[in-house]
Amino acid sequence: MMADGTREPRKGSGSPRSCAAGLLGMAIALGGMPPGRVPLADAQSGGRGGKVEEITFDDVKLDLQKDEPFVDSKLTDRVKRLNKKSVRVRGWILPASVFQQKGIKSFVLVRDNMQCCFGPGAALFDCMVVEMEKGTFADFTTRPVAVEGLFEIKELKYPDGKQYAIYHVRGWSVK
Prior knowledge:
Layout: H1 20-31, E1 53-55, H2 77-82, E2 85-93, E3 106-110, E4 127-132, E5 145-157, E6 163-174
Parallel strand pairs: 1-2, 4-6
Antiparallel strand pairs: 2-3, 2-5, 3-4, 5-6
């Protein structure tokens, strides 16, 4: 439990070097924006005016082994229910996913601060690609952040077809 009464994100299942290569590549793809930009999907439910559900990375954990590709059949009922819902999730901004300190439009939110998601072969469920809504921005910090936005199951792949993320959040607030 954190000092402000919220739950602290749990450490992931990967090794200390489990996902940096994949997420660094994703960060480069996101930073290159036009060709690598992830398009925003239209909201089907939830949204800024609706109820925001507090979740953790444990809520979106799947039965996937390290380096195992994602398939829809691995989705839990809990994750399926969260799709297209307004959520608040705590985690850390992956430093390699941002190229500026202020006015950040997109970044990778990870489960833990340099304990799980830095090396090849990370669990796909230990990160979320966050894209801020038009007119909203995030500022980089080394402290945990709470992201509010629309959670989506969205398989994201490199040009070679390898998956780098399966969760996307259209963010409207980062605190």
